[in-house]
Design brief:
Low-confidence stretches: none
Family: Belongs to the citrate synthase family.
Pfam family, one: Citrate_synt
Number of helices: 17
Protein name: Citrate synthase
Helix content: 40-55%
Radius of gyration: 24 Å
GO biological process, one term: tricarboxylic acid cycle
Bound molecules: s-citryldethia Coenzyme A
Largest sheet: 3 strands, antiparallel
Strand content: 5-15%
Number of strands: 6
GO molecular function: citrate synthase activity
Shape: globular
Mean pLDDT: 96
Length: about 425
């Protein structure tokens, strides 16, 4: 098939032929990498029209609200799979068979503990430190403990690092929570499932046997699945950019955690609950919708809108259904769910939100389930980081195991032309 081309016509220059790349799914893309050699750059703040890399891991069709991980829809994975299976799929490209799954789960279980010295890091933090601040610090420090596996060109080092990160993030996340409470930091129990073990470390204590509700464990596991990966979002792009310099994977994941923390990204789930608290009750919804529409008001409807989805975020739909299931099974009647659903209904009928194609995203309902599970708002983004670690590692590994260049964007310079320094005693 003849290669499709784009013809770039620039006044005063010869026409430039640019190759058009055709993906398995999605839009054709113009390869602009030859522009530099022709004395031109592209300008695309926020990368709204720019593909930064080739990837086989996740595909999003924002127009129809579709999310595929290695070709499987998020709806099917959330309903029929579990988080560690999705981890295997994201890392290896295929779902595991029974033998592969048993081996994968067994290896993860053998890495759930952190080095005892890691526990000392926590004592350096104030008890009221935000758990994301602690997680950034502790995960970044992990590279100080694994000198045996920091050769990023060695596939075995990359593999053991993936296992260590997937296995240890729940342990570290729970330690961040327990430290804030002043309660003993819990050890993992390898007789428990992944989500069950996390809830054990979060809510258990050394004085009694932990009983983890299967309903909550299943809801937690589904939340982990829904947050596992999402293509080249801000934090994943941060991990790729950090990794492109050859930085070790623990440092790259710590960079991803930092990027995720922002309220425009993974910090939105915490911001949604704070927003619902601020709105208070249904009578205030119209007031806050007006604020969200007011260009002069910085208030945004948290949990709404998305760079890619211009339709429902399919994860939000699964999350909303799971909200009802979990709250009904727990017999919880959380007025925040009713408030959130009313807010969604009013916003989606408003011309502003319809015109700008602003729909609920993954963060809109997740906090309500997390709250029902008993997780404090300050831990919501920590859980997002825990879940997304496998996505970050899968993208990092995909980049490092193929030819890559250091990421180095250019700029549109609008500063001063060259000028000469005036001696201090002559300056006005
Ligand atoms: C995540 O990228 C990913 O994949 C991220 C993520 C993942 O899994 O990794 O999906 C997770 O980060 C979900 C998004 C969570 N963030 C929020 O819920 C915060 C609230 N949302 C907004 O901040 C915003 O929608 C973003 C940041 C999510 C997207 O911003 P964009 O793509 O830069 O779009 P934009 O800000 O240019 O918005 C387009 C218009 C603007 O108005 P105009 O300038 O055109 O007049 O819509 C308006 C915005 O002001 N707008 C909103 C709004 N979101 C966008 N107005 C009110 N409330 C909102 N929530």
């Amino acid at each position: 098939m003849t290669e499709k081309k784009a013809i770039l016509k620039v006044e005063g220059r010869d026409d430039l032929e640019l190759p058009i790349l055709t993906p398995t799914l999605g839009r054709d893309e113009i390869d602009v990498s030859s522009l530099t050699a022709n004395g031109l750059f592209t300008f695309d703040p926020g990368f709204t029209s720019t593909a930064s890399c080739e990837s086989k891991i996740t595909y999003i069709d924002g127009e129809v609200g579709k999310l595929l991980h290695r070709g499987y829809s998020i709806e099917e994975l959330a309903a029929k799979s579990d988080y560690l299976e999705v981890c295997y799929l994201l890392l290896n490209g295929e779902l595991p068979n029974a033998e592969q799954k048993e081996a994968f789960v067994g290896t993860v279980k053998n890495h759930t503990m952190v080095h005892e010295q890691i526990r000392n890091f926590f004592n350096g933090f104030r008890r009221d430190a935000h758990p994301m601040a602690i997680m950034c610090g502790v995960v970044g420090a992990l590279s100080a403990f694994y000198h045996d596996s920091l050769d990023i060109t060695n596939p075995e080092h990359r593999e053991i690092t993936a296992y260590r990160l997937i296995a240890k993030m729940p342990t570290i996340a729970a330690m961040c929570y327990k430290y804030g409470l002043g309660q003993p930091l819990m050890y993992p129990r390898n007789d428990l499932g992944y989500a069950e073990n996390f809830l054990h470390m979060m809510f258990g204590n050394p004085c009694e046997e932990t009983q983890v509700s299967p309903t909550l464990a299943r809801a937690m596991d589904k939340i982990f699945i829904l947050h596992a990966d999402h293509e080249q979002n801000a934090s994943t792009s941060t991990v790729r950019l950090a990794g492109s310099s050859g930085a070790n994977p623990f440092a790259c994941i710590a960079a991803g955690i930092s990027a995720l923390w922002g309220p425009a990204h993974g910090g939105a789930n915490e911001a949604v609950l704070n927003m619902l608290d601020e709105i208070g009750d249904i009578s205030q919804i119209e007031t806050y919708i007006a604020k969200a529409k007011d260009k002069n008001d910085p208030f945004k409807l948290m949990g709404f809108g998305h760079r890619v989805y211009k339709n429902y975020d399919p994860r939000a739909t699964v999350m909303r259904e799971s909200c009802h299931e979990v709250l009904n099974e727990l017999g919880v009647n959380d007025p925040k769910l009713e408030l959130a659903m009313k807010l969604e209904e009013i916003a989606l009928s408003d011309p502003y939100f319809k015109e700008k194609k602003l729909f609920p995203n993954v963060d809109f309902y997740s906090g309500i389930i997390l709250k029902a599970i008993g997780i404090p708002t300050s831990m919501f983004t920590v859980i997002f980081a825990l879940s997304r670690t496998v996505g970050w590692v899968a993208h990092w590994n995909e980049m490092i195991s193929n030819p890559y260049k250091i990421g180095r964007p250019r700029q549109l310079y609008t500063g001063e032309k060259e000028r000469h320094l005036v001696p201090l005693n002559e300056r006005k």
